[in-house]
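Figure 3 (text version): structure tokens given as input.
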């Protein structure tokens, strides 16, 4: 039997003066109301009411128990009202986790617009490339790039992002333009060490044949902006997501290589711990992410 309902029945019986009155208030049968109170008495091993055929009167234990229950139910009602109000408005602190480079390069404008539109929200952004448990870290929403293997998380797809291979014009002048994936095998390569297989680069030609370049790299780093700086300085050939290198390719500071070959695509997604009871502040923020990165991601401009 539902203990919370039993407490409601007990309090209603005291305030209405009878089980019948409690039953009317809570839309139960009088017999069911009586069983709820009997269940409490059985669990407490104490009598709460003196019963007669005409009325109910509280025992000393019942009177003390009623005061406690009344305060508990009032506090619960207030907590429910506060939670409903918070759910219906955008306020509080939004805690967001994001990969370092993606967050530093692309999240600032979204966050700025979000806080401008929602002045009662503060945003706490955690930048890091290591996997974190959202519940343990107290994170409301995270941006994840790549495969999502955690079935406990809810995912909303934001955008796709192709991998690109590129180098500085100065590097191409020095080493020549690679025409096939095999030409990259002997080139100094720059790789992200946190990738599943840092030095494993795959290309697919127009006939759907796959070419895999593997082996040691000249520079590996656990930060994509470091690799971007190395590529811009002509240290080697970089392979990474378009959201890192795309702007520099468009502006000519880097040259896209092997245009006749297709690379893999990454999926960028927003994830959060539960589909039920998602605060409005989280829903709204994810909507902003989808709006900014959905149809025309900035790395595709």
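Below: residues designed for each position.
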């Amino acid at each position: 039997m539902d203990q919370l309902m039993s407490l409601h029945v007990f309090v209603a019986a005291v305030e209405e003066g009878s089980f019948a009155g409690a039953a009317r208030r809570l839309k139960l049968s009088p017999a069911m109301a009586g069983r709820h109170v009997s269940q409490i008495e059985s669990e407490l091993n104490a009598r709460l009411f003196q019963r007669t055929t005409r009325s109910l009167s509280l025992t000393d234990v019942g009177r003390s128990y009623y005061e406690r229950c009344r305060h508990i139910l009032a506090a619960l009602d207030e907590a429910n009202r506060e939670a409903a109000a918070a759910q219906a408005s955008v306020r509080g602190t939004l805690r967001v986790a994001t990969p370092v480079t993606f967050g530093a390069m692309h999240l600032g404008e979204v966050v700025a617009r979000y806080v401008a539109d929602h002045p009662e929200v503060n945003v706490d952004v955690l930048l890091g490339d290591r996997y974190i448990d959202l519940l343990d870290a107290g994170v409301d929403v995270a941006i994840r790039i790549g495969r999502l293997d955690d079935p406990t998380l809810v995912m909303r797809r934001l955008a796709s992002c192709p991998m690109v291979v590129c180098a500085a014009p100065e590097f191409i002048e020095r080493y020549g333009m690679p025409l096939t994936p095999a030409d990259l095998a002997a080139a100094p390569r720059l790789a992200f060490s946190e990738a599943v297989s840092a030095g494993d680069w795959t290309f697919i030609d127009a006939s759907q044949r796959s070419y895999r370049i593997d082996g040691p790299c000249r520079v590996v780093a656990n930060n994509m902006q470091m690799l971007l700086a190395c590529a811009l300085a002509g240290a080697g050939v970089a392979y990474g997501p378009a959201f890192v290198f795309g702007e520099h390719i468009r502006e000519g500071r880097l040259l896209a290589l092997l245009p006749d070959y297709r690379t893999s695509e990454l999926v960028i997604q927003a994830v959060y711990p539960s589909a039920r009871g998602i605060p409005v502040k989280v829903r709204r923020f994810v909507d902003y992410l989808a709006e900014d990165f959905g149809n025309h991601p900035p790395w595709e401009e």
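The first helix runs from residue 3 to 16.
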